[in-house]
């Protein structure tokens, strides 16, 4: 063997992380993003020394883990840190609590600060786009661990991830057209890639909420785990039809029950306590699978699939940034404003019928129009 000991070598590991700890917080100081490392676990439950999953937690449970501007920075920092840490096998992108993974951008911030300030919202959208990019460019596989609602922008950043494991109580959907925006933070790019074109279209525009089981059936997510335990028995979400049968020519497996059946099931779910053991078991299985693959071959394979999603995302993220900013002076002002003042008015949407009538009559966009379609304070 040739002797190369004479060649100078620097063997001290370098830190390639661009971001500091200022972008992370603790679980007891929301709203923020919490970054932590947990050991890889083998099939027998043994922790593997020196190898980890990086957990990036959205921590704003009082507002259903909607992300503030500072939290967006935290997600970017978390994905960057995990990318550059050679001890990290994969990233788990999740949130605090059992009600929501994420319901999108923080509507209070949108309504009270960003509406009527298009340049400010354009700057915010640069950060949002960088958040989606940070997920799509992360040099570790990113698993979305859905602990509750994945709605609106939460659905978009979730679909940027590589795989999804979900609580069977979770719901998925968009909210933009009902609340003054368009799902152009990724959903209009990703949904046609995940689903058939008409499922993608309806999910994108209808603002219907679909169950985790339905999303698994039609191919949006990878795994669904029950999170309610009755003694030693796991109880699958009773609100959902889990028998495969056909009604009027349509498979209804995964749809919500109706009438008294749904009310009874809903009451049970509200009183039940959640246990994420099986959900986390699915996360650990994926982590162990990835641990036992060549890391370079793994990431080349993941990036090759990601590039198909990224192609459509990259086509539209810049023009969408400009449209979303401009829209903050129009429908977004009304939609976010209505949602943000629902405790004052008792309703979270505008009067759509009156709004359409006013537009049909050629009404100008001014405070008089806004007053006619927004709710009024309750007496």
Number of helices: 15
> By CATH's scheme, which homologous superfamily of the largest domain applies?
2-enoyl-CoA Hydratase, Chain A, domain 1
CATH architecture of the largest domain: Alpha-Beta Complex
Please outline the major beta sheet: 6 strands, mixed
Strand order of the largest sheet: 1-2-3-5-7-10
Helix fraction, binned, reads 40-55%
What share of residues are in beta strands?
15-25%
List low-pLDDT spans. none
Number of domains: 3
If you consult CATH, what is the topology of the largest domain?
2-enoyl-CoA Hydratase, Chain A, domain 1
Number of strands: 14
| CATH class descriptor of the largest domain | Alpha Beta
Rg is 23 Å
Secondary-structure element order, N to C: EEHEEHHEEHEEHHHEHEEEEEHHHHHHH
Overall shape: it is globular
Helix-strand layout with pairing:
Blueprint: E1 32-41, E2 47-59, H1 69-83, E3 88-95, E4 100-102, H2 107-114, H3 118-136, E5 142-146, E6 149-151, H4 153-159, E7 163-167, E8 171-173, H5 176-179, H6 187-194, H7 197-206, E9 210-211, H8 212-218, E10 223-225, E11 228-230, E12 233-235, E13 246-247, E14 250-251, H9 259-271, H10 277-291, H11 295-326, H12 331-340, H13 342-345, H14 352-360, H15 367-373
Parallel strand pairs: 2-3, 3-5, 4-6, 5-7, 6-8, 7-10
Antiparallel strand pairs: 1-2, 8-9, 11-12, 13-14
Helix pairs in contact: 1-3, 2-12, 3-11, 6-7
Can you describe this structure?
The chain is α/β, with parallel strands linked by helices and 379 residues long. It folds into three domains: 21-227 and 275-327, 2-enoyl-CoA Hydratase, Chain A, domain 1 (Alpha-Beta Complex), CATH 3.90.226.10; 232-273, no CATH class; 341-373, no CATH class. It is built from 15 helices and 14 strands. The strands form four sheets. It has a six-stranded mixed beta sheet, with helices on both faces. It has a four-stranded mixed beta sheet with strand order 4-6-8-9.
């Amino acid at each position: 063997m040739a002797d190369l000991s004479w060649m100078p070598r620097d063997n001290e590991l370098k830190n390639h992380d661009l971001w500091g700890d200022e972008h992370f917080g603790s679980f007891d100081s929301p709203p923020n993003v919490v970054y932590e490392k947990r050991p890889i676990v083998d099939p027998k439950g043994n922790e593997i020394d020196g190898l980890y999953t990086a957990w990036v937690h959205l921590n704003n449970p009082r507002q259903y883990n909607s992300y503030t501007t500072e939290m967006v920075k935290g997600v970017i920092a978390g994905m960057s840190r995990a990318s550059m840490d050679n001890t990290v096998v994969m990233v788990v992108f999740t949130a605090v609590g059992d009600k929501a993974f994420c319901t999108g951008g923080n509507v209070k911030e949108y309504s009270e600060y960003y509406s009527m300030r298009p340049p400010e919202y354009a700057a915010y959208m640069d950060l949002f786009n960088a958040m989606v990019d940070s997920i799509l460019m992360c040099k570790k596989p990113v698993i979305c661990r859905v602990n509750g609602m994945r709605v609106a922008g939460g659905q978009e950043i979730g679909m940027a991830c590589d795989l999804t494991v979900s609580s069977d109580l979770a719901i998925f959907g968009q909210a933009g057209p009902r609340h003054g925006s368009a799902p152009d933070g990724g959903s209009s790019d990703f949904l046609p890639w995940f689903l058939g074109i008409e499922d993608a279209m309806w999910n994108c525009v209808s603002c219907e909420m679909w169950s985790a089981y339905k999303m698994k059936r039609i191919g949006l997510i990878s795994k669904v785990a029950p999170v309610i335990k009755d003694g030693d028995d796991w109880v699958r979400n009773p609100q959902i039809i889990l028998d495969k049968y056909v009604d009027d020519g349509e498979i209804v497996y995964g749809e919500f029950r109706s009438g008294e059946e749904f009310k009874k099931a809903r009451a049970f779910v509200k009183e039940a306590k959640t246990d994420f053991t099986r959900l986390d078991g699915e996360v650990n299985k994926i982590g162990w699978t990835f641990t036992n693959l060549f890391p370079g071959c793994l990431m080349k394979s993941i990036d090759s699939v990601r590039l198909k999603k990224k192609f459509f995302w990259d086509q539209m993220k810049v023009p969408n940034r400009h449209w979303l900013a401009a829209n903050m002076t129009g429908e977004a002002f009304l939609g976010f404003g209505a949602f943000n003042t629902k405790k004052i008015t008792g309703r979270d949407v505008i009067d759509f019928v009156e709004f359409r009538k006013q537009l049909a009559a050629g009404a100008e966009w001014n405070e008089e129009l806004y007053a006619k379609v927004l709710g009024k304070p309750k007496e």
